[in-house]
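stage 2 :: seqdesign
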């Protein structure tokens, strides 16, 4: 699928040069063992410059050798072929003139195109993966040189002076050597079908042929005209001739001139086209011309009949968007099939999936909250693919409700190509069976003339569902199968309205007064900017409606993207490493309305994607982090808050904790470790690897094997939470950070018995999830929110919108309502002071279409009564602001009924990891009159120093708004 590029003038362009390669992390330049080799030979890709969002292309679009390669807003295709002489390297070949990228080994020489290697010119390229999926530097074989864009993109969109030279390990990489590799996924078309080619920009039109000069034109759609019918004859490499059914001649562009009108001529191999989807679930295609950087286009986007079809530069204009609507070959004007009796045998107590006969894929709704579109997809393990049948208002008919959205299946227009959509009002549908057990799904109002149809016999995920005249074709036949995984219940819990922000929150932390501090990176919507600064915002969710401070620029010489996070015992937030890998920042919420950001002591080791954990004595442990600062053994160091000093722990190495099979090795294997101070005074390493370890920070430190999660997979981007004293819940994750299977597994890990660890596999989550967040509630239940069912980083395609809640009393998960916005990579979730759960962010990927600069708040079931109304909360009338570990204190409640109490340590979250937050249930004694004597555990490794939210829960389990208390050692 072609990713959208930022809109820029076609006159804006940048020259592409060869320069010294600059990389983050652990990449060794131009060596075959480090080259990414996962591209498909012969597939066409787009090369989009990460820091400009422009794409690499020839200028001018020429067949001449030595033409310069530049970046422009117009995209262009490049075919990758494995180089025969250099394993792991590719030749990069222009998709329209078969010339390939070449360069000499001299620095600062423009990249050009040529016929292949000759003399000092080389044509083998090594793709070196950068920080995120599908972003690479492109290095010339045998050199330390990579393709580099001249000049930095500035406000006026004009180049400035060239970048300074960089050596191979320069961490100050500005992104001008980063290219996003985007596969152009084009479709296979049924050659046994007749189609109408319907332009999207003008309603009621179809491509036709002028009978005099055989020009291809746009005319009013007329089902009776054979001149408006087209068939496709397959050639090679996914290209086709487009043949008119009446004239038996093919579409042709006779000359090599752009803006040439399309005519009909004899069928020949020089007139070939391929059909590429424009964007997800849209259902329309671009028609691209083989050998030329052109697409077919209705001239001037005119809606007028007789407008010619011509060739133009590919763009997102609707004048280049066409739907392929099938006709019946045998009898295109035959009368509709008379309705058979409707099948009335369906069970309305369970949901069904609807599987299309022609593709085997199921009907689903989009996770995009602004889309009502219905389409087909491969996955059927999702509420978006489940449909509940309700008895219709007419006997024999059903209303069809989606289990994810609670909206009913309907259509926008009763005509060929009418979109299948969703609505709040039910529509009556008749299921007409055939002998094979499949059904046509027919709207009652159409009198049996129309049925649900997958447009153009498309086999691809995302092909949309439409209404079309019933023909008996396989793309109108659906198999209904009962779901064995989901039951449809009235799920408790409510998502409040979306709160828009001025940045994408990739990290967040609790503040003592109930506000939340959140931050993105050096740019508000993109992580790739750099520059020693960070955008932040303060959200007050306790106000109605919630208020935020806007985007505030903090300059502590620290781009705080992908850091380690921790909360000091006094409530200050500690942010370390990330893009600026050794730098640290301390956020003090007690200085002014917006707090104060100050530069902290630098770490000994540069780190990014590392983990941090508070220790019994108030110090902070950190370990790992090869995403930034170089790939190497990144053992532990400990920060003493009192002295401001870092101390290396040479006996705590990451190697025993990186026992994963992540395909990217150490670059990912030491990321986002789950570290928990345990009751025995040691630190428990719970994953993401299957093997788990004990860390002893005394002296030089040591690592000792603890246990394994038998039956689990390595769970990169999974989650753990401490839901009770010495008890962890582990959920989700994937075999590798960016590839492999994603799991729905769940484990309870008990670390209360010295160094013996009890690992229990419990019931699975309803959904596999990677990049989710887990939040423990005051009652010990755990909410799992967001994430995706696959490992693709910047994508909403498999987003899980439904939250789940785990009950520690039953070890079972229940599905909660769907949130409105997908929460993918770089999303956060955190407990609020009033017991609600904040979920937000996702994306932070610049020009991508999955940036989510917003948050939403879940009202969990315990805050609602049996009718779904707000439950009556208990109120803490008084409680001390500071208590001593191991001592008791008094709490005055507003009522005298029984209450239970728990404290929740203030936490900080990023990248699915929050090693600060822990729940500690407290023993209490009811002294009458609403007064309770509450005891803090005596073990300082259980009751860690720090600020906590104190919750009281009444006999119905409804929590109070918390009071903030400080646990101190004296």
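stage 2 :: out
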């Amino acid at each position: 699928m072609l990713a959208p590029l930022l809109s820029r003038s076609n006159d804006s362009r940048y020259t592409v040069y060869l320069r010294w390669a600059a990389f983050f992390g652990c990449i060794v330049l131009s060596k075959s063992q480090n080259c990414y080799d996962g591209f498909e030979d012969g597939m066409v890709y787009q090369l989009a410059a990460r820091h400009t969002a422009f794409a690499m292309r020839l200028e001018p679009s020429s067949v001449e050798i030595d033409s310069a390669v530049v970046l422009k807003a117009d995209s262009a295709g490049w075919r990758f072929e494995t180089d025969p002489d250099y394993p792991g390297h590719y030749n990069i070949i222009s998709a329209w003139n078969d010339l390939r990228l070449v360069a000499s080994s001299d620095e600062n020489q423009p990249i050009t195109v040529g016929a292949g290697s000759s003399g000092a010119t080389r044509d083998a390229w090594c793709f070196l993966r950068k920080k995120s999926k599908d972003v690479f530097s492109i290095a010339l074989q045998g050199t330390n040189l990579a393709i580099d864009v001249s000049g930095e993109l500035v406000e006026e969109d004009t180049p400035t002076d060239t970048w300074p030279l960089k050596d191979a390990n320069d961490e100050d990489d500005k992104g001008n050597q980063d290219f996003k590799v985007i596969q152009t996924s084009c479709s296979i078309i049924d050659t046994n079908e007749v189609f109408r080619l319907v332009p999207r920009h003008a309603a009621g039109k179809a491509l036709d042929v002028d009978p005099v000069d055989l020009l291809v034109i746009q005319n009013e759609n007329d089902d009776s005209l054979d001149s408006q019918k087209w068939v496709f004859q397959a050639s090679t490499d996914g290209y086709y001739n487009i043949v008119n059914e009446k004239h038996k001649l093919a579409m042709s562009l006779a000359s090599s001139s752009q803006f040439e009108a399309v005519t009909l001529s004899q069928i020949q191999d020089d007139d070939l086209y391929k059909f590429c989807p424009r964007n997800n679930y849209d259902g329309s295609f671009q028609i691209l011309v083989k050998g030329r950087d052109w697409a077919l286009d209705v001239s001037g986007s005119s809606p007028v009949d007789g407008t010619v079809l011509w060739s133009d530069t590919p763009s997102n204009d609707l004048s280049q968007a066409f739907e392929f609507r099938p006709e019946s070959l045998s009898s295109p004007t035959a009368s509709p099939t008379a309705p058979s009796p409707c099948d009335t045998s369906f069970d309305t107590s369970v949901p069904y999936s609807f599987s299309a006969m022609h593709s085997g894929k199921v009907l689903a709704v989009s996770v995009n909250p602004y889309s009502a579109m219905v389409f087909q997809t491969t996955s059927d393990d999702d509420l978006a693919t489940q449909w509940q049948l309700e008895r219709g208002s007419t006997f024999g008919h059903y209303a069809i409700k989606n289990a994810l959205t609670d909206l009913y299946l309907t259509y926008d227009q009763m005509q060929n190509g009418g979109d299948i959509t969703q609505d709040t009002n039910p529509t009556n549908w008749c299921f007409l069976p055939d002998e094979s057990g499949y059904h046509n799904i027919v709207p009652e109002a159409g009198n049996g003339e129309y049925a649900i149809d997958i447009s153009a016999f498309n086999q691809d995920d995302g092909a949309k569902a439409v209404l079309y005249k019933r023909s008996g074709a396989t793309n109108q036949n659906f198999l209904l199968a009962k779901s064995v995984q989901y039951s449809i219940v009235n799920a408790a819990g409510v998502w409040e309205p979306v709160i828009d922000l001025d940045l994408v929150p990739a990290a967040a932390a609790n503040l003592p007064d109930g506000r939340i501090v959140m931050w993105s990176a050096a740019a508000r919507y993109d992580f790739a900017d750099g520059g020693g600064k960070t955008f932040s915002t303060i959200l007050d969710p306790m106000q109605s409606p919630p208020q935020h401070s806007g985007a505030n620029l903090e300059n502590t010489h620290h781009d705080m993207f992908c850091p380690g996070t921790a909360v000091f015992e006094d409530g200050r937030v500690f942010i370390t490493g990330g893009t600026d890998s050794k730098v640290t920042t301390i956020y003090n919420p007690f200085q002014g309305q917006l707090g104060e950001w100050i530069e902290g002591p630098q770490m000994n080791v540069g780190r990014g994607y590392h983990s941090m954990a508070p220790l019994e004595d108030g110090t902070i442990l950190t370990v790992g982090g090869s995403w930034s600062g170089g790939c190497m053994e990144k053992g532990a160091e400990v920060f003493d808050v009192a002295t401001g000093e870092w101390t290396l722990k040479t006996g705590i190495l990451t190697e025993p904790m990186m026992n994963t099979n992540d395909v990217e090795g150490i670059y990912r294997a030491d990321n986002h470790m789950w570290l928990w101070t345990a009751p025995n005074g040691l630190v428990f390493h719970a994953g993401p690897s299957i093997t788990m370890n004990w860390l002893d920070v005394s002296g030089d430190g040591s690592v000792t094997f603890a246990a394994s999660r038998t039956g689990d997979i390595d769970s990169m981007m999974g989650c753990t939470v401490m839901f009770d004293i010495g008890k962890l819940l582990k959920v989700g994750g994937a075999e590798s950070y960016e590839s492999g299977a994603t799991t729905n597994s769940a484990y309870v890990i008990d670390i209360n018995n010295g160094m013996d660890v009890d690992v229990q596999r419990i019931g699975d989550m309803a959904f596999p999830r990677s990049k989710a967040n887990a939040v423990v509630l005051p009652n010990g239940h755990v909410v799992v929110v967001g994430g995706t069912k696959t490992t693709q980083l910047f994508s909403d395609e498999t987003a899980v919108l439904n939250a789940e809640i785990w009950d520690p009393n039953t070890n079972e998960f229940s599905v909660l309502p769907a949130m409105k916005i997908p929460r993918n990579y770089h999303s956060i979730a955190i407990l609020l002071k009033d017991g609600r759960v904040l979920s937000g962010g996702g994306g932070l990927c610049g020009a991508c279409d999955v940036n989510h600069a917003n948050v939403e708040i879940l009202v969990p079931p315990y805050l609602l009564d049996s009718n779904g109304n707000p439950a009556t909360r208990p109120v803490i009338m008084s409680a001390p602001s500071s208590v001593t570990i191991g001592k008791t204190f008094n709490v005055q409640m507003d009522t005298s009924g029984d209450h239970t109490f728990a404290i929740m340590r203030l936490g900080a979250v990023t990248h699915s990891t929050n090693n600060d937050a822990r729940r500690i249930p407290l023993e209490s004694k009811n002294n009458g009159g609403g007064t309770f004597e509450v005891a803090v555990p005596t073990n300082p490794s259980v009751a860690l120093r720090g600020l906590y939210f104190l919750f009281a829960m009444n006999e119905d389990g409804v929590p109070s708004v918390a009071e903030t208390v400080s646990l101190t050692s004296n």
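stage 3 :: structure notes
- The longest strand covers residues 919-928.
- The chain has one helix and 75 strands.
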